[in-house]
Amino acid sequence: MHTTVLLLAADAPAQLLPARQLMAFTLASHIILVPMGVALPFITLLMHYRGIRRNDPTALLLARRWSAVMAVQFAVGVVTGTVLSFEFGLLWPGLMGKWGDVFGIGFGVEAWAFFLEAVLIAVYLYGWRRLKPRTHFLLGLPLPAAALMGTFGILAANSWMNTPRGFSLDSAGNPVDVNVWKALFTPMFGPQYWHFVVAMLLTAGYVVAGVYAVGWLRGRRDHYHRLGFTVPFTVAAVATPVQFFLGDSIARKVFHEQPVKFAAMEIVWKTDTHMPEYLFGRLHPDGTVTGGIKIPQLDSILAGFSPDTEVMGLSSVPASDRPNATQATIAHWAFDLMVVIGSVLALLALWYAVVWLRHRRLPASKWFWRSAACAGVASVVAVECGWVTTEVGRQPWIVYQNMRVAEAVTATRSTTLWIMFGLVIVVYVFVFGAFLAVLLKMRTRWRLADAQQGAGSPVEAPEADTPYGPRSSAASVPSGSSGSSGSSGSSGSGEGRP
Amino acid sequence: MTADVIAFVLLLAVTAYTCAGGTDYGAGFWDLTAGGAERGKRPRWLIDHAMAPVWEVNNVWLIFIFVIMWTGFPVFFQTVFSAMWVPLALAAVGMVLRGAGFAFRKASRRLAGRRLFGTVFAVSSLVTPFFLGAAVGGIASGRVALGTEASARAWSNPTSLMFGLLAVATTAFLGAVFLSGDARRFGAPDLVDHFRGRALAALAAVAVLAVVALFVTRTDAPHVWYGLTHGMGLLFVLSAAAATFATAWLLLRPPGTWVRVTAVGVVAAAVLAWGMAQRPYLIPTSLTVADAAGAPSTLTWLAFVTLVALVIVAPAVVLLYWLDTHGELESLTDADLRRGGTEPGKSADGG
Ligand code: HDD
Ligand code: HEM
Ligand code: HEM
């Protein structure tokens, strides 16, 4: 009680705002790369398998090109991820100092999964030229499993923050009797994990397919574009309805495990039965809702399959223990947007499936291809929205009902944090801008090469042009003084090796 | 008991990061000092190609260190990150710039772009180890304690300065030794000698700085000084000295592989000596291993996780280094990424 009153006072420490902004910004940036990190290897391996199985050089070419993209993307994923682990200490020392030994172990699993992933990715990326095709493919196979392991660690930690378990508090309020197993497998873990994994799969699928959908719209409709579109899009289309189902079940889990968060997501003010559902709309501090579309009874039905289900409202807990009206509105909008996107994507997948089942071909409508081109961006937006729902809906708790964000934050002065935030923004704009530029340039070069190839003009000597250039032979060492001819060796296999 | 084991695992992880990550940072150091665009072209080429397949793996060690810190010794993690705010924040920024600069440099064709990314990569390769070293110096000299707030004093002091410089020199030394070996592997004999000379110079710098650092700790970090001059700490100091002489001797002879082993020996022994000298403290003389230890069951699990890591990750890392040093890893070229380019598998069987 005392602490509640104490913290109710509006004087949250000044450093809280910049710390949160910094955390949110860096996480939101990192998460853009995660779908590619988790699911692109899987999709690439599928394509690779097809190439080997059907002896299809186009499929192998696609797999090789995707792995070149993987190289750059993985590098950016690693550095932005490392920043996050620094930030745990730099921004939230109180969280780690008190709870690190309760929920930190998941990250241990993550760390060695990343190790494995980094090794396997390196072998896969650099193994194309010299390893035997079979060996190369087999060495790539454990990659998706390693990615799933890494995801396990992070989501175990995050779901623990939502539904903390596996400890008891001593008289001083410190965690004792830690049960690691219970702390890893908390109630929110299962739903969050599967919802997340499928989200990654469908996001990566739509993003990759979107690239070829754009090509298709511009009239490039060869085998290469057809294949580049079909494989990832099929993966995503299969995942989408699953995601719909999983999303429904995670929402119900939130309703049971974190009723206050659920109230924020649905902007429910007073505990009652026969709750209406608002699509969008805005919650005001006095509990009124303006705007939005009101659908009577639906919220209760969704939460418990019956209009008689009682839904807990925000006002059932003290103001200090719940998100404020603005935070609730943010979580609500984010949630609704995610659901809208998920529903639209499900329709798109349905369209694809129906045309395929009836005509055994790709849809012909321009609108299908336009929507497919946008689906990638939409699913990234859905991922961001999902996290905003999770994180903002949990406010003011960093460890749900056990530690407030304000108790966890660093004591560093807010000015320092703001400066740091500014610096990080500049750095990230640079990094992500360069990342995008590199990808676009790669695409342009490949397109050029394909056009030349099509026109039958000779192909010039291979050059280092992916970020990690060739490492074959002395022949391609740029010659010392006459720096004009960068790379001269053309096949370069073997002769430079000791 | 378990806490001691975990503390030792932490020390080993720090050692591994110093060696693996250090080699990586060192490559950046030599990139910075390689000279103008024309003169530095060949060393930079070598650096790009030697680092590419392994740099991510080298850097995951740091994540492992953090995880052991916050899971095994939460209070230690909290204390260090609260007190060392500025150097650690700058190190984090440095890491982003470094990784991004490296990855993008090869991608840009225009000289201006390559210069920009290259400079970013090289400068941050210098700054990052310095700040990490300075933070460690602050710990070794006991300038942080539970509740210490972030202040410049914690990391701008003689020990921190020496540790920072020593970190930079060490990375330069490791980088040069490994690049010299890579040059041999890539068949660039002139670069072998180029980096051999630099390795010797860097080794001399490391030796001088280490001796100075030793004497700085005498007044500035008495607990560590005592540890370094007695018992296990002394043993490792002597091993480091022996390895230094062996490395110098090997560097003067025709190039071989053993010099890598002794070079890693120098650095590993030095880090272990520091760790031994700190016993039984994580932060001399305010926080012992036992005081900082997390929940006993967590520590047991952490030991288990470490064991699994050893069983699963070690063979994988060995495989990577083996493939790498046997020239099996080679990145794709434009031709491979072109339509109808040679099929990878076919050409591989031939070569
Ligand atoms: C492509 C991405 C995507 C799509 C289409 C959906 N979601 Fe989602 N959702 C995520 C991506 C995502 C996510 C980013 O992966 C989250 C954030 C945290 C998490 O575990 O998953 C998430 C979280 C999340 C949460 C919050 C869990 C919490 O607070 O802990 C709920 C209730 C839902 N989702 C429900 C849905 C529903 C009902 C959908 C209906 C179509 C849906 N999601 C589609
Ligand atoms: C990767 C996707 C994620 C995104 C986009 C995300 C987003 C956010 C956002 C927007 C906030 C600010 C909330 C606010 O105060 O308004 C936040 C806070 C935070 N998140 Fe997440 N989050 C993600 C995953 C995680 C994970 C996996 C963890 C930990 C394991 C985590 C830990 C935290 C912490 C410690 C805070 C600060 C405390 C707080 O403000 O609640 N987040 N995150
Ligand atoms: C807030 C906590 C987070 C931390 C501390 C963190 C840390 C890291 C680190 C250190 C890396 C680089 C690993 C390497 O060197 O290989 C990384 C990349 C990665 N992260 Fe995060 N991360 C966080 C959030 C997330 C979330 C929410 C996910 C989703 C499950 C995620 C999934 C990944 C994946 C799959 C990679 C592999 C790299 C890639 O392919 O992009 N991370 N992360």
Description:
The complex is a heterodimer of chains A (498) and B (351). Chain A is mainly alpha-helical. Chain A has helices spanning 2-8, 16-53, 57-91, 93-103, 105-126, 133-140, 143-162, 180-184, 189-217, 223-257, 259-265, 298-304, 325-359, 366-393, 405-408, 414-455, and strands at residues 168-169, 175-176, 277-279, 282-283, 289-290, 293-295, 397-399, 403-404. A two-stranded antiparallel sheet of chain A has the order 1-2. In chain A, a hairpin with a 3-residue loop joins strand 7 and strand 8 (403-404). Chain A is globular, with a radius of gyration of 25 Å. The relative contact order of chain A is 0.11. Residues 1-10 and 457-498 of chain A have low confidence and may be disordered. Chain B has 351 residues and is an all-alpha fold. Helix content of chain B is 77%, strand content 1%. Chain B has helices at 2-32, 41-51, 55-72, 74-83, 85-105, 111-140, 158-185, 189-220, 222-228, 231-252, 258-278, 289-292, 296-325, 344-350, and strands spanning 281-283, 287-288. In chain B, helix 1 (2-32) runs antiparallel to helix 3. Chain B is globular, with a radius of gyration of 21 Å. Classes of the chains: A mainly alpha (498), B mainly alpha (351). Chains A and B meet through helix 3, helix 4, helix 5, strand 2 and helix 16 of A and helix 2, helix 3, helix 4, helix 5 and helix 13 of B.
